[in-house]
Amino acid sequence: MAVLKVLEWPAKVLETKSEPVEKVDDEIKSFVADMHETMDAAGGIGLAANQVGRAVRVLTIMIPWSESRYADQEPEKKEPWHDKRWTFINPVIKKKNGKIRWQEGCLSFPEIYEFVDRASEIEVEALDENGQTFTVEANGLFSVCLQHEIDHIDGIVFINRMSRLKSSMVKKKVSKRQRLGSVEESVNDQS
Ligand code: NI
User: pTM of the entire structure?
Assistant: First the structure.
């Protein structure tokens, strides 16, 4: 197992539509294990394969249930999808219902958190890490996270789901931070 490098936007592979997995073999199984390890190490609740540079239709999710997550709010209800390690290979959204607005973050956009509108409930069919077909109904954060990750493998990043104004603000913030980052790097190189 290995922790892989998580790519940041504007890496091109993040805006590339990913190819389906043809066979869930040992190589894909070990890649899935690496993705889970990478997601945990990065402190993310979801990860798409193209975020680690591989444009295949694989995503991982693990949403811990914690009463203390929102200290100033009512404890969230524990759902069956909490604290469960999910692998979706070749996922397809079969049904969509309702609307939900959630403040989303993304490992490919560090420190950016913006509200995005999504369907509140979805039904998804996919293969698991053993190549078995399963169907799951998702609500709340699980639904939000699944739609965010399925967008990733379709080459859609969450700024594409924001208003034009919000998305250009985020782009400016990101390029400013990356400029500052490269200045720091060159300073370090000199020492
Ligand atoms: Ni993301």
Answer: 0.92
